[in-house]
Design goal:
The chain is an alpha+beta fold. Helix content is 14%, strand content 19%. It has one domain. The longest helix is centred in the first third of the chain and has 9 residues. The two termini are 26 Å apart.
């Protein structure tokens, strides 16, 4: 898999209209502050034909800010069916934990409450 990163991580130049992991994460974060993000390994479909990672220098296992994480998530991807095209991650807000949900290649960002609360659980 070859990734072409978008140059502007601020969301201008209509990058906010593209389907990117960054934009999908920002939608899930909503109006909350992102406290931190941690990446795991790239998904099984993300390596190139030689097994090299598609995202160079991905800081695996290191807690980083949203600002630092933007450069690793700002590329167009297919979040439909097929192999996943986004690295595994956790992102924290004051009230939620966000993570990748993948079913049969359909990829989306979902969240659960950060702390126990009275609620009706939703299916992912």
């Amino acid at each position: 898999m070859s990734i072409t990163f978008l140059h502007d991580i601020s969301g201008s130049n209509n990058d906010d209209e593209k389907i990117t992991p960054l934009n999908d994460l920002l939608k899930e974060i909503g109006n909350e502050e992102c406290i931190g993000i941690i990446f795991s390994e790239e998904a099984w479909g993300m390596q190139d034909e030689d097994g090299n990672p598609s995202i160079p220098d991905l800081p695996i296992g290191k807690l980083i800010s949203l600002l630092e994480a933007k450069k690793y998530l700002n590329y167009e991807y297919d979040n439909g069916f097929g192999s996943p095209e986004v690295p595994n991650l956790y992102a924290w807000t004051p009230t939620r934990v966000i993570f990748i949900h993948e079913y049969d290649g359909s990829t989306k960002f979902v969240s659960v409450p950060r702390n126990p609360i009275t609620c009706i659980p939703e299916s992912a």
